[in-house]
Design goal:
The complex is a heterodimer of chains A (124) and B (321). Chain A has 124 residues and is α+β, with helices and mostly antiparallel strands. Chain A is built from 5 helices and 4 strands. The chains are: A alpha+beta (124), B mainly alpha (321).
C-alpha cells in the first residue's frame, strides 16, 4: 500500500512535469533510471490512477497515452479544500487542529490571547 | 411492568436532563478525559436502558423453543410473576420491536459511518500521495499549500498532515506542540470515540444526549490533545499557534460553518489554566460513570435474580444471590 503510494506519486510527478500525453513506456524508461520496475507494474498503477480520475487517457495504436486531468497546483488546492471544508458537520474521517473561521472569530481569538499576555505583565 | 417503566424513565432522564446538565457544566473542560467518559456513559446508559426495558417486557413471555419451554415453564411463570408481566402478547411484541429496532439501528449506523470514514480516509490518502512528501524528521506528510492546516489521518499507522502554509506560521516550539497534539489524537485513537458519537447522533436524530455528545466529545478530545501538546511546552505558545493557524486557515466555505466558539474556549483554557482535578473529584466522576451504566442493568436484572431464587428455576445463584 505504501509502496504503491510512492510509485503513484513518482508517476504523477512526471506527468505533471511533462504535461503532455505520455505512454507507459516513456514513464517506465524514466523511472528505470532510479529503480528496476516491470512494465506491467507501471501499467497497472497508471490504470489505477486513471480509474481514480487523476489521469485521462486516449488510445494511440495498441497502447494508451496518459495525461494528468488537472495541474499539480489545482489538484493540491482542490484536495485541501475538500479536506478542510468540513466545519460544522463532523465526520471521523480526519481530525483537524482548528476549523476554519471568519475574520471576526479570528479577531476574538487574538483578543483572548492578548488579554492573557497583558494580564501576565507583558510576558513573551 | 415496573422495571420496564423505571428503565424508560431512566432513559428519558439521561437523554434529556442528564445531557442538559453535562452540557452546562464547566468541569469537563478542566478534566476533558473524564468529561468524555461521562458523555459516553450517558449515551450508553440511554441506549442500554431502552433495550433492557424492551427485554424485560419480552423475555418473560417466553420466546423459548418448545422443548426448552416445557422444561422451563415453571421458571417462566416465576419470571413473569417477578416482572409483573401484564398486557397481552401485543405488549411483548411491541417491546421486542422497540428493543430490536433500537439495537439494529445503532449497529447499522455504526457500521455505515465507520465504513464511510475508512473509505473517505483511504481516498484522501490516495489523492494526497502524489503531492505530499514525507518529512522523516517531523514524521509528517507535508503538502505544498498556502492555507495553513494541520490534521491527522487516523487508521492503520495514522499520519499527521501539515501544509507548508502551517510550517510558515509556526515557530519550532509551536510546531513541536502541534505535532504532539496530533500524535495524542492518533495514540488515543480519538477518531473511534468521535465516530461512535457521530454515528449515534445520526442514528437517533433529535435525542438530546446523542446530539450533544456528538458535539461535545470532539471538542473535549481537542482539549485533551491540547493538554498533551503543552505537557512539555509553553501553554501561551500553543494558544498562539492555534490563533496563527486559524488566521491563515482560509475563509470558511459556508457561513456558520466555522469553528470559532470552540477555538475560543480552547484558547481561554490554555492561557488561563486551572488546577487539574484532585483524587476526590476524579473518583467521584469515575463512580458516576460506573453508576450510570450499572443502574439500568441492576434494575433489569433484579426480578430475574428474585425469580432464580424460587425452587422452580434451575439456576445457580449462590454467588449473586
Amino acid at each position: 500500500m505504501r509502496r504503491l503510494g510512492e510509485l503513484e506519486a513518482a508517476i504523477m510527478d512526471r506527468l505533471w512535469t511533462w504535461s503532455r500525453p505520455t505512454r507507459v513506456r516513456e514513464v517506465l524508461d524514466d523511472l528505470r533510471r532510479e529503480r528496476e520496475l516491470a512494465y506491467t507494474t507501471v501499467m497497472t498503477v497508471m490504470d489505477n490512477l486513471h480509474r481514480k480520475g487523476l489521469l485521462a487517457r486516449e488510445r494511440d495504436g495498441r497502447a494508451y497515452r496518459y495525461q494528468a486531468t488537472v495541474s499539480r497546483e489545482d489538484h493540491t488546492a482542490g484536495l485541501m479544500e475538500a479536506a478542510l471544508a468540513s466545519g460544522g458537520d463532523r465526520t471521523a474521517a480526519l481530525l483537524r487542529l482548528v476549523h476554519r473561521m471568519d475574520p471576526d472569530e479570528v479577531a476574538a481569538l487574538r483578543k483572548a490571547l492578548d488579554e492573557a499576555h497583558d494580564g501576565r505583565g507583558g510576558q513573551r | 411492568m415496573i422495571p420496564a417503566g423505571l428503565l424508560l424513565a431512566y432513559a428519558l432522564l439521561t437523554a434529556t436532563l442528564g445531557a442538559w446538565w453535562l452540557r452546562r457544566a464547566a468541569w469537563p473542560q478542566h478534566a476533558p478525559r473524564l468529561g468524555v467518559a461521562v458523555w459516553q456513559a450517558l449515551s450508553v446508559s440511554t441506549a442500554l436502558s431502552v433495550v433492557l426495558a424492551s427485554l424485560v417486557v419480552t423475555i418473560p413471555r417466553g420466546a423459548v423453543g418448545a422443548g426448552f419451554a416445557e422444561l422451563l415453564r415453571a421458571c417462566v411463570w416465576a419470571l413473569r410473576a417477578e416482572y409483573g408481566a401484564v398486557g397481552g402478547p401485543l405488549m411483548g411484541a411491541a417491546g421486542a420491536a422497540v428493543g430490536g429496532g433500537v439495537a439494529a439501528r445503532a449497529a447499522y449506523c455504526l457500521i455505515r459511518e465507520s465504513a464511510a470514514a475508512v473509505r473517505e480516509r483511504r481516498r484522501h490518502a490516495a489523492l494526497l500521495a502524489p503531492v505530499a512528501r514525507l518529512d522523516t524528521r517531523l514524521r509528517a506528510l507535508v503538502v505544498p499549500c498556502e492555507a495553513a492546516a494541520a490534521y491527522c489521518l487516523p487508521g492503520g499507522h495514522g499520519r499527521i498532515v501539515l501544509t507548508t502554509g502551517a510550517l510558515d506560521v509556526l515557530d519550532p516550539g509551536q510546531l513541536t506542540g502541534v505535532l504532539a497534539h496530533e500524535r495524542a489524537h492518533l495514540r488515543g485513537r480519538h477518531h473511534l470515540a468521535v465516530g461512535v458519537a457521530v454515528a449515534l447522533a445520526r442514528a437517533f436524530p433529535g435525542v438530546p444526549v446523542f446530539r450533544h455528545a456528538a458535539d461535545q466529545i470532539p471538542q473535549l478530545l481537542e482539549m485533551l490533545a491540547d493538554d498533551a501538546a503543552v505537557r512539555h511546552g509553553d501553554r501561551g505558545a500553543h494558544a498562539a499557534a492555534l490563533v496563527a493557524l486559524a488566521a491563515r486557515g482560509g475563509a470558511p466555505a459556508r457561513a456558520l460553518a466555522a469553528g470559532g466558539p470552540e477555538a475560543l474556549a480552547r484558547v481561554r483554557r490554555l492561557v488561563a489554566p486551572r488546577r487539574p482535578f484532585g483524587p476526590v473529584r476524579r473518583a467521584a466522576a469515575l463512580i458516576g460513570v460506573v453508576a450510570l451504566i450499572a443502574l439500568p442493568i441492576v434494575v433489569a436484572a433484579a426480578p430475574a435474580l428474585a425469580a432464580a431464587q424460587t425452587p422452580h428455576c434451575p439456576v445457580e445463584v449462590s454467588v449473586l444471590g
